[in-house]
Each structure stands twice: as C-alpha cells, then as structure tokens.
C-alpha cells in the first residue's frame, strides 16, 4: 500500500481539539442567533433543550462541565470569573456524560409544595446569555490546547508531514446539521386563557405540545448527519486495492479522516442520547398510560427507549478505539487493517444510531396521533378527579335508591304482620326478584298458618343453587330415616370369640381391670342397658340416637361372662391389638445400644485399680530402692545396666506388690 502520513498520538489529540473547537464555534453562532430572534419577537426560548445540544464539548474541563450542569438545572453562575485555559496536551473524553439529566416530575413537585409555572422570557434569555459566555470560554480552552499541540508537533515532525487542515476538513464531517434544530427550540405563544390559569394540568399540557415539536425538529436534523457519515463509511469500504486508495481524495491523510469520522460518531451519539433521555424522563410515564390501553407500537417503543437512553451506554467499543489512537506514544501508519477497524466500529455505531432514531420516530408518530385525536388530556389529574367524583356520585345515588326501596318493603311487611290472615302477594313488595334484603319480610310470621313470601322464596332458591356437601347429605339421610322408621334399635348380642368381627362389635364395652364388686355391677349394668335398648327400639326420633352407638375398634375385647379373671378380679392377660402376637418378655428386653449406654453410665465414675509395672517401679525408686543393692540379684542386674534383663523379668513377690519385694512394712 502507498505510504501515507502516519497517525500518532499528537495527531489524534490535535484532531480532537480541532473537531471540538469547530463544533463550539458553530454552536456559538446558533445560540447568538436564537437570542437575537427571541429578543426581537418576544418569543420564549427553551434554554434547557438548547443546552442539551452541546454534545461532548463541555468535557474539556471539570469546571466547565459543572457550569453546564448549573445551566441545565435553570440556575446561574458568576460569569465574571472565567476559567483560565491550561496549556496541557491531554486527550478529551468523548464519552456521553448524561448523569446531570433529570426529568421533571410534576406530581412529585406538587407533593413537595412546588408549583409548575409557565416559562418566562427573561429567565430563559439570561440562561442563554450565560451559555454563550460559557461556550466562548470553552472555545478559548480548545484553541489554547490546539496551539500548544501544534508547537510540539513542529518540533517532532518535518514540515512536509505537518497536518494540512484543508485536506482533512470535510463538509460531510464538519457541517453539524443537527445544530440547526436550535432555531426551532422556542415555545409557542400560550393562549390567553392559560396566562391567568392556575391549573397544573393545563400548564403540563402546554409543555407537552411544545416538547413534541422539539422532538420532531431534532429527529429531522439528525437524519442528514447520519447520511453523511454513511457516505464516509462507504468510501472506506470501497478501498480494496492500491488503485482504489490512490483514487481516494487526499489519501495521504486517510487515517486522519477516518479518525475524524469516529469522533463525529461519538459526538452524535452523545447528542441523540442526551435529547432522547430528556424526552423519555419527562413524558415516559405519561405515554405509558396510553401504551397500557392497547397502543402496542407505543408500548414497544417506550421499552426500547428505556433500553437505549436510560440503561448503560452502548459506545464502549467506540471509546476504546478512540483511546487506542490517542494513547501516549502510539503511532499507526496507513494500513488496510486500521482502515477496516475504523470501518467496523463506524458501521456498528451507525446501526445503533439508526435504531435510536427509529425508536424516537415511533414515539413522535404515536404521540402526534394522540394529540390529533384530542386524547392528550385523558390522564390529566383534574380530569381523572372529575371522573372519579362522577362515579362516586352515581354509586351514592344507587345506594340511596336501594335504601328507600328497602324502607318501603319494611313498612309494608309490618302492616302484613298486623293482619296475618289476609292473603297478599308479597312478591309485589320487592322491586326486583334477584335482590335479597335482610328485613322483616324475609321471615315467616308465627301467627299465619300458611304464609307465602316471595322474598323468602327467592332467598331459598338462592341457597339451594349451590349443591349440598357430603356432610349435609348424610345428615339429611339420617333425618329422613329417623322420621320414616327405617332406623330402629336392636338388641346387642355379646361377643362369642375374641376375633374381630364388625357385626359383633356393636354395643360391646371394653373392660380393662376391675375388682370383684365391679363384676357384679357390670352384669347388672349390661342387663339394664339391654332393657333400655329394647324399649327404644320402637321409635328413634333424631340423629343423636344413632350417634350413641359405640365406635368400632380393632381391640380384642374382654367380656364379663368369659372367665379370664383371677379370684381378686384382676385381668389375667393384657388387651392386645388385632393381629398382634401374645406378649413375651423379649419385647421389653433392652437393645444392644441400650445395654452399651447402661455400661457407660455404670463405669463412667469407676477409677481403674490396675497400674503397669513401669509406673510401680518409678514409685518405688530412690533410697529405699537402692538399699537392696547387693541383697537382691534381680535388682543388681537391673541397676547394673544389664541389657538382657528388663523390667518385665523383674519378679513380683508376695501378693503382687513391689512393696513386698522391698520389704516395706
């Protein structure tokens, strides 16, 4: 490839200073023109949206950026104290700093006691004048940095390789068509009815209509800027061979022109994101109400807006590439791979910006349709309050009408109680057969033999609509059986054997342990109970008689006539459950774990009485031990150091104690 002028870190930083200074100068011209037009026609400018058009130019200095935040909040700073430019050559942060953008919340301000007011001409003009002074100060800082970088550039590079701005500057990059929207950022004249109005909804509606116009103007002027950048990317994409490179205009500075395209993308991304975020924060909640009512395109567009303008920024690759070419000591010659890197990063940013603009266009179209259909005030606070008040009044009237009708029914029912024998149609007293009222007419008078109540019939029909439960069906069956005599008493027969039988378990009592006197009383009680059961066998009046039958169980029952008791009347065997074998002593035998636990508890405090030979020998050494030297052969061998003789060979005399060996008394 034909060698061109390389792009080093000084060239990259000089391109940043040059781009920012050109944009600042163009910005100053548009702000001055807007101030002149507003003063001449008494039109109120929107100073907040004019400040948002700054892009990245206020990132040159922290103090400059703080002052731009002050202006964005509608406040003022001391313009007499200008910020002195620093003669340092540092790269500029081309990131989108949008933390200072805060949407106004009318409802939150109203809760805190703040009232929304109409925009004032004087306050907005004062803000624009301070903005103009801040832009001039910013331009001076960029100019000083650029001059300092040129001096260092002249000391390093030969004159033939100096930057020629005429060959680098391109109208497609330095035209800044998006700044033309500043002329449209003016409020329309408020109607005369709004000047003396204190309605907050009317003021908010006025602000929405104007900001809808601001959004339309911004979108219309961003489109041409994206078209110019797309044309620049097409030129880079067309370079495939050396001949294509030579045919390119000013191909020696192609690296510098490509770097300028990336700077333009970074600035345009900050421009679109700052304006889109302000629109979304101001009116996103208001427009979401229409999205919930079935406006699906608006709902989807608002979700995408939150993704593009509120969530974390998506220009990370672009910022990394710009930092790469402006890093201290970097030097990149004209190569195809670098040109393709510029193209790939630029293409991704172009696609992202087109998606963001499409999202804003969708919101603008749906918002315009809402305004054109005269539905922009459907969710205003005053209108919603009136709707709620109207519904409350309608419900109150309905309740009053029902109370009057219920009172009328109550009076008529009292008259009917005084004349119970007069047959009347009570169904005419109720205004509606589907309404159940708790009054006197819902009960049957005791004096009337066969009264009829339409309200009672309706209540009964309403109750029988739901199917009865299983318990209710059982109770009903028992009641009917008791009335027709199908349930009767039967003499209970004693159980003949111990094996369980359902037919023989009725009426049998379990006897556990009784004395001899209890046995005689039990037989008498049994006869009495049998006699009472026989007397009650004729009629069974209610379900309680059925419930007196003893419950069945799975016990082996002992009867009084079975001779299984001793002379004292005590039970000779235990009551066992069904299918359980007879009791044996092995059932109560302790388990191995229980036996181990018993042993541990028994021997936990036991002190051992056995001691090894070494311990006993240590206890007996000393003068008493050595006095037997020469008197005992085993002791002499042990003390003499005989290796073949150990403590184990030492014989223990007497009762197994060393004291016997040493003849202790």
Automatic annotation (TrEMBL):
Q: Which domain of life is it from?
A: Eukaryota
Which portions of the chain have biased composition (kind: Low complexity)? 430-446, 508-543
GO terms (molecular function) for this protein are:
protein phosphatase 1 binding; protein phosphatase regulator activity
Q: Where is this region: Disordered?
A: 409-453, 485-543
Q: Which InterPro entries match?
A: GIP4
Compositional bias, Polar residues, is annotated for: 418-429
Q: Cite a GO CC annotation.
A: cytoplasm
Q: What is this protein called?
A: Uncharacterized protein
Organism per entry: Eeniella nana (Yeast)
